[in-house]
């Protein structure tokens, strides 16, 4: 009997320097070969999963697929999925689960996502991050 593994697609903002770097780290740490990181600006397959451009532009999304079964997570839950399936990051998982349990994980993630223009040093200052709030430097 052939064992069937998950495939995890991660939709990131390919026009955000920090988001691209995060995608590169996911690829580098993917010892199990489960992840496919793609920019939603270049790959519109997010719509195949019922996700809107506004949703993927607002926060990171993961789509776990095993056969025909899908599990879609966004925001901090997507971060937990990434931590769960990247063995080098397993030491961070208990801390992340604690943040979720305390209700802080989603709040901190939302704050980062809404202000990522500030956190990436104005990399989105050319208008490439529509809908992302934040102050310009």
What descriptors fit this protein?
single chain; 137 residues; alpha+beta; 4-stranded mixed β-sheet; disordered C terminus
Explain briefly what this protein structure is.
The chain has helices spanning 17-29, 53-58, 76-85, 93-102, 104-114, 116-119, and strands at residues 7-12, 35-39, 61-66, 69-74. The protein is an alpha+beta fold and 137 residues long.
Walk me through this protein's architecture.
With 137 residues, this protein is of the alpha+beta class. It has a single domain (7-119), classed as Glutaredoxin (3-Layer(aba) Sandwich). It has helices at 17-29, 53-58, 76-85, 93-102, 104-114, 116-119; strands at 7-12, 35-39, 61-66, 69-74. It has a four-stranded mixed sheet with strand order 2-1-3-4. α3 runs antiparallel to α4. The chain is globular.
Order of helices and strands: EHEHEEHHHH
Number of domains: 1
Determine the structural class based on helices, strands and strand pairing. alpha+beta
Largest sheet: 4 strands, mixed
Strand portion: 15-25%
N-C termini distance: 57 Å
Assigned CATH class: Alpha Beta
Strand runs, count = 4
Helix content: 25-40%
In one word, what is the shape? globular
Rg result? 15 Å
Mean pLDDT over the full residue set? 85
Low-confidence stretches: 122-137
Question: What is the CATH architecture annotation?
Answer: 3-Layer(aba) Sandwich
> Helical region count?
6
The side-by-side strand order for the widest beta sheet comes to: 2-1-3-4
